[in-house]
Write a structure and sequence with these properties.
277 residues, alpha/beta, Immunoglobulin-like, 2 domains, 5-stranded mixed beta sheet, 4 helices, elongated
């Protein structure tokens, strides 16, 4: 069975967009530190891929890379994927309840308070501000309609609270998660890795992710490039919109000619020994 190698790309979205580069604003991790990976927590990760053969000398099967991107300033991936959509919907439902309550006050319980249209407008303004700010997602391609479920949702801060319409500047905004749109570079050109986007029921990754099979029969260090799409919040034509910003960052894989082994016994890949008591 192929060994699964997970590579996490953490991006400081706000800093990367401001500097217009992922250099110094991205942090890479994998699960092969004990096997010799280098540069963990930096933007120059070298992932160790040990084992072109098994301990008995037979050819080892390929290993599989899996890339998962996350934003430093985004809501935790452990939250339900419907969290933002539910928050947006519930704020609209609350606004409807508040409007019904306001109508009841005007007609019955607080007639004296709302004799002036000015007082009514003040209450309506408060209700409107509490509903938050809706956004839409722009695309650089007219034929791409998929917005990953973000259009129509509302701006939220990093604490999970909706941002009121009256707020002119948002300091700690919940950034949309980065998206890896492709894998290219030396490792791909030399047929060392074979990347593709895969569908998955895992809703943490929005149902799809990038992965690649590795040809472990060619030892060496190879570079590859991740094509990453970030989203910048802008005000355009009086509306808030997420505008895509494309960037790239480079990482490496290092294939050794050491035999594949497990991390429990440092022996070959196979059944673990069961001690007889």
């Amino acid at each position: 069975m192929s060994q699964q190698l997970g590579i996490i790309l953490m991006v400081d979205v706000e800093a990367a967009i401001k500097a217009n580069t992922l250099a110094g604003n991205s942090y890479l991790f994998d699960n092969m530190k004990l096997q010799g990976s280098e540069g963990l927590g930096t933007d120059k990760l070298v992932s160790a891929i040990n084992g072109t053969h098994y301990c008995d000398g037979s050819q080892a099967n390929e290993q599989v890379l899996n890339w998962l991107p996350y934003g430093v300033g985004s809501l935790p991936p452990t939250l339900p994927k419907s969290f933002l959509a539910d928050k947006s919907k519930n704020s609209d439902l609350k606004a409807l309840d508040d409007l019904k309550e306001l109508a009841n006050k005007i007609e019955n319980t607080e007639k004296e308070r709302f004799t002036s249209i000015v007082h009514v407008l003040e209450e309506l303004k408060k209700i409107s501000q509490a509903t938050g700010v809706k956004t839409k997602v722009q695309s650089k391609r007219s034929d791409v309609k998929h917005d990953f479920g973000h259009s129509g949702q509302k701006i939220m801060d990093v604490t999970g609270e909706l941002v009121a319409q009256s707020e002119e500047k948002i300091s700690d905004i919940n950034s949309l998660n980065p998206i890896i749109t492709g894998i290219s570079g030396e490792a791909v050109d030399k047929n060392i890795i074979y990347p593709a986007a895969y569908g998955s029921p895992d809703m943490v990754t929005d149902g799809w992710y990038w992965a690649a099979s590795v040809d472990t029969s060619q030892p060496g260090t190879y570079a590859y490039t991740m094509h990453v799409q970030l989203y910048k919040l802008t005000l355009k034509d009086g509306e808030s919109a997420w505008v895509p910003v494309d960037m790239t960052c480079e990482a490496f894989i290092k294939i050794s000619n050491d035999p594949k082994k497990n991390g429990f016994t440092n022996a070959g890949v196979g059944f673990l020994p069961i001690p007889i008591v």
